Amino acid sequence: MNSIDHLAALDPGKLAKSEQVALDHFRKKPDGRGFFAVGEILVRHHRIEEAIQVLMQGLERHPNYSVARVFLAQLFFKKHFFREAWNCLEGSPSSLRTNLTAQILRLKLCVVLNFESQARSLARELAVQDFQDGEARIVIDHINIKSFPILRRDYAEYLGWDGINQQQKKESQRITEVALKSKSQDDELAQEHFQERVAKGFFSSPVQEIFVKRTAPDLKPGDLDELTRARLARRQGYYQSAYEIYERLAYAAPSNELLRREFAEVRELRDAQKEIDRQMDPKMADAMDKVRTIDKKIAVLNQLLQSLEKLDVA
After folding, report:
1. How far apart are CA 28 and CA 233, in angstroms?
2. Whole-number Å distance between alpha carbons of 223 and 252
3. How far apart are CA 191 and CA 184, in angstroms?
4. 23-31: long-range contacts at Cβ-Cβ below 8 A with a sequence spacing of 24 or more?
5. Contact 103/131 with Cβ under 8 angstroms?
6. What one-character-per-residue DSSP string does 8-45 give?
7. Distance from first CA to last CA of the chain, Å, rounded?
8. CA-CA distances (angstroms) from residue 66 to 88, 99, 126?
9. Contact in structure between 104 and 136 (CB atoms under 8 Å)
10. CA 3 to chain centre
């Protein structure tokens, strides 16, 4: 089917006079650059598939027509044909580096397609540019705050694209396996260091840690893995869970400088995650805040009940 055949999908009675003039011009010169105007008309009349076909056929004849190429890539993106959109931009015979619209679209595609290094490079370049694309601004503002897999997941959900789900599950499983393997190696290394220090008679602790009188309970032996769990949660982007664990650990060991620093960092990450979630879905963000508040109240009540049970036993 050639480009002119796609015009049959349009209702002449709904066309504006300027649109009819553009279509008549294209019918007279189907090999010219009028295909771009036809593509725009088709999109305005909700015939995106036909517009894509017209633009693809037109670019075969005029591959250097950058405006039409970027417009086609935007249509691919809108239809969630992300790989096709990327190939469309990358296949341009002329450079699109000075085309701001193309660079913004490339940034979005890099996030969706998991091109992390290119996404970060583009974000740095676009950060100093003046443009009004809200989605791209959110990506730029949060690419150094959220972990890239979480940013990618959130943006895919915002776009309504579920093709990322299986990829995210595989990535999460891989990260968990690597983290658990790393934890096992760290435990073995720590045990070796411990045995070496005991054998040499040099196992010391800061004086203030030995004599300080704590108002909060000390860490229990079973809590020694809490820090590992907190770091794993942070690495996977579960900042709220990591925050809650760090909060308990920092309360139990208030003079631990490393712990306090990591706690402050994860608090900033958690707050940044809340902000981007609120921008994408304010109602869901409010609902999650209410759920967390209720969970905290339940936890306090459970602790109170346990304390009362101990008093009854005594």
Report:
1. 63
2. 11
3. 11
4. 30/2, 30/3, 30/4, 31/61
5. no
6. GGS-GGG--HHHHHHHHHHHH-TTSTTHHHHHHHHHHT
7. 88
8. 10, 9, 20
9. yes
10. 38
- Helix (H/G/I), strand (E/B), else coil: 160: coil
Closest CA to 227 of 205, 203, 209, 252: 252
Q: Give the pLDDT band of residue 34 (cuts 50, 70, 90).
A: very high
Say if CB 88 and CB 72 are below 8 A apart. yes
Tokens of 164: 């990322």
What is the C-alpha to C-alpha distance for residues 25 and 36, in angstroms, rounded to an integer?
A: 12
Structure tokens at 62: 């005029």
d(CA 67, CA 202): 71
Phi first, then psi: what are they for 217, rounded to 5°? -65, 145
pLDDT in tens, 256-270: 888 888 888 888 887
Say if CB 14 and CB 22 are below 8 A apart. no
Continuous segment of H or E residues that includes residue 283:
helix 282-313
Kindly report, residue by residue over 123-159, the tens digit of the pLDDT. 999 999 888 898 999 999 999 888 899 899 989 888 8
Least-confidence region, from 150-159, 162-171, 246-255: 162-171
Instruction: Please identify which residue in the block is written with the tokens 């049959």.
Output: 8
Model pTM above 0.85: no
Contact 28, 44 (CB under 8 A): no
CA distance 156 to 146: 14
Res 92: pLDDT: 95
User: What per-residue string of b and e applies to 254-288 under the rule 16 or more CB within 10 Å gives b?
Assistant: eebeebeebbeebbebbebbeebbebeeeeebeee
CA distances from 26 to 20, 153, 158 (A): 10, 42, 37
pLDDT interval class at 187 (50, 70, 90): low
